[in-house]
Design goal:
Layout lengths: L11 H39 L9 E2 L19 E6 L7 H14 L8 E3 L5 E3 L17 E6 L10 H18 L6 E3 H5 L5 H5 L1 H14 L1
Parallel strand pairs: 1-4, 2-5, 2-6, 3-5
Antiparallel strand pairs: 3-4
Helix pairs in contact: 3-6
């Protein structure tokens, strides 16, 4: 016949001690959680404080008139990339290229534009709000920001001041949209067009440009 087990009876003093231990353990647990949470919060704050920030470029806002040929007014709902173009018009200024896009509403010769034009003296003209598409990058119009860049001669190579302003603008846009230099592409990468000419014909220069952009981030 199996032996009967006696039920363990706890005294009031023992119960209180157990309750005390459980309470203290609970307090310690939440205290530890609080310390960890505080540490994470402080770490994120310090990281944000010392994170590299790209200087917002100085731009001249000169929006195109809404029209069917250069500023259709269609919403740009998501930005997945930045597309670099060259004007293919040696020696022309940012203003001249901006006005060319504006005049398309009258000439109707083609559909073309960009969000920005970077000039020979480093000036940047902002043509189209970033919430709207431009007519620049064919199948990627719907998810990219387009930048036209002026160049002094037929080689298509950008001068130093234009190059530096372009690097800063692209890095700032990457920072704004949470992108890396991997999301920066040439018009050539979309359609095979020789644009921007110098960066297509000199792959090493294109890679260096992307490295310069990434270094700014």
């Amino acid at each position: 016949m199996a032996a009967k087990h006696k039920k363990l009876k706890l005294t009031k003093k023992t119960k209180k001690e157990i309750q005390k231990i459980v309470f203290q353990s609970t307090v310690c647990f939440f205290a530890v959680i609080g310390v960890i949470t505080t540490f994470v919060f402080i770490f994120k704050g310090v990281s944000a404080l010392f994170a590299k920030k790209v200087t917002e470029p100085e731009v001249t806002q000169d929006f195109l008139t809404v029209n069917s040929y250069s500023r259709p007014g269609i919403a740009l709902n998501q930005v997945n990339g930045i597309v670099i173009h060259y004007t293919a018009n040696p020696g022309s200024s940012a203003k001249a290229n901006r006005d060319y896009f504006e005049n398309l509403k009258t000439t109707h010769t083609t559909k073309a534009s960009s969000h920005y034009v970077v000039g020979l003296e480093g000036e940047i003209i902002w043509l189209i709000p970033l919430e709207e598409i431009s007519y620049a990058s064919n199948s990627r119009n719907t998810d990219t920001i387009a930048i036209e860049v002026c160049h002094p001669d037929e080689t298509g190579k950008f001068n130093d001041v234009t190059y530096d302003k372009l690097v800063n603008l692209v890095a700032w846009l990457c920072q704004k949209y949470g992108l890396s230099s991997d999301s920066v592409i040439r018009h050539y990468d979309i359609t095979g067009k020789n644009c921007p000419k110098y960066f297509v014909e000199h792959e090493d220069a294109w890679k260096e440009f992307l490295e310069d952009v990434q270094d700014r981030l």
